[in-house]
Design goal:
It contains two helices and nine strands. The protein is of the alpha+beta class. 16% of the residues are buried.
């Protein structure tokens, strides 16, 4: 039992440590609109049925331009479905996840990722 727990913990830590920048893992879904030493502003589009791989985001704000229904999968195996409406503004803590658009409309948002000192 301890071995299974240890293997699971190592897998989660490995996935978290090796999660990638979404602009690099999924450039077809992200467009960098502005980047400086304090923020990175991204335009995000995910069509119905599309999936993006595991990636990470720092803390930031997401503004929904056109809503959708998304399924988030986390390194620990947990999943969560969320709907977002156009005009909604969401605070996002630092996260690592994969995303699938399970709705029937394109999800379109602007994300403002905050940078910490030394993160470029």
């Amino acid at each position: 039992m301890k071995t299974v727990i240890l293997i699971s913990l190592v897998a989660v830590l490995w996935a978290t440590a090796h999660a990638q920048d979404p602009v690099k893992t999924s450039p077809q879904y992200y467009k960098v609109l502005l980047e400086n030493d304090q923020v990175r502003v991204l335009e995000y589009r995910l069509k119905a049925g599309e999936k993006e791989p595991m990636h990470s985001h720092p803390a930031g704000v997401v503004y929904v331009l056109s809503g959708g229904k998304l399924k988030f999968s986390y390194p620990d195996g947990r999943t969560e479905e969320r709907a977002a409406a156009a005009g909604e503004t969401i605070w996002r803590e630092p996260t690592t996840h994969a995303v699938e658009n399970i709705g029937d409309t394109e999800a379109h948002a602007i994300a403002v990722d905050l940078k910490t000192s030394g993160q470029h």
